[in-house]
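Fill in residues.
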C-alpha cells in the first residue's frame, strides 16, 4: 500500500512538473512575442524620428535659402 501511495505521489509530482514546464514554455513564448512586438515598435518609432529629423533639416535649409534670397533682393533694390 505504501508503495502505491508513494507511486501516486511521484506520479502527481511528475504531472505537476509537466504542468509547470508547459506553463513556463507558454510564458516564455508570450514574452518572446511581446519582445518582438516592442522591438518592432521601437524600430518604427526610430524610423519616424529619423524621417522627422530629416524633414526639419530640409526645412531649415529651405529657410536659409529664403533668407539668403531675401537679402539678395534687398541688396538688388538698393542698387
Amino acid at each position: 500500500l505504501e508503495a502505491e501511495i508513494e507511486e501516486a505521489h511521484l506520479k502527481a509530482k511528475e504531472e505537476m512538473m509537466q504542468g509547470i514546464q508547459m506553463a513556463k514554455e507558454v510564458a516564455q513564448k508570450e514574452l518572446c512575442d511581446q519582445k518582438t512586438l516592442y522591438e518592432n515598435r521601437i524600430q518604427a518609432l526610430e524610423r519616424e524620428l529619423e524621417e522627422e529629423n530629416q524633414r526639419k533639416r530640409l526645412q531649415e535649409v529651405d529657410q536659409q535659402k529664403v533668407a539668403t534670397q531675401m537679402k539678395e533682393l534687398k541688396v538688388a533694390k538698393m542698387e
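The chain has one domain: 1-78.
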